[in-house]
Amino acid sequence: MIIRDKSSQLEASNPRDADPSASERTTENTAPFVSASLELEAEALRATRVELAAVIAALKAGFENLRQGFLVLDDEWRVMIFNERINEIVGYPPGVVREGGHLYELAAATAALAREGVARGKAK
After folding, report:
1. Which long-range contacts (CB under 8 A, 24 or more apart) does 15-22 make?
2. Tens of pLDDT, residues 82-93
3. Alpha carbon distance 105, 113 (integer Å)
4. Spatial CB neighbours of 93, under 8 Å, sequence gap ≥ 6
5. Residue 25: pLDDT over 60
6. What would the DSSP string read from start to end of 49-61?
7. pLDDT tens figures, 29-78
8. What is the C-alpha separation between 78 and 92, in angstroms, rounded?
């Protein structure tokens, strides 16, 4: 009785395994198409970024023209966008409200403003 090793038959039956350069030729043949596809995707991404930047600039300009103070926080309580009017209304010094700043920073600044106000009130 003869027992044959089936794994060697399977390996030999795969044409890429029979000719190791076949895999390399396939990669060489498809590389220009993949490269061109990636270039097209990169260009589309660049165009989208330019469009988004223009939209964001227009929104910021609109927010700056609001008479109301405007502040948007993300789900981690960080400032995403705001207008300068919020500083005027609350009395924050420049730089306290900033994109990426945390709500806790604003709370600390508000508490400092309140302490200053109380101290000025007692001094009178």
Report:
1. none
2. 998 999 998 998
3. 12
4. 87, 109
5. no
6. HHHHHHHHHHHHH
7. 777 777 888 888 999 999 999 999 999 889 888 888 888 998 999 999 99
8. 17
Furthest CA-CA distance within the chain = 111
The one-letter amino acid at 117? G
Tokens of 116: 């200053």
Answer yes or no: are the C-beta atoms of 75 and 45 closer than 8 Å. no
Residue 39 token pair: 């270039």
3-class SS at 73?
strand
80's enclosing H/E stretch is strand 79-82
Q: Where are the domains of the chain?
A: 9-65, 67-124
Q: Answer yes or no: are the C-beta atoms of 55 and 47 closer than 8 Å.
A: no
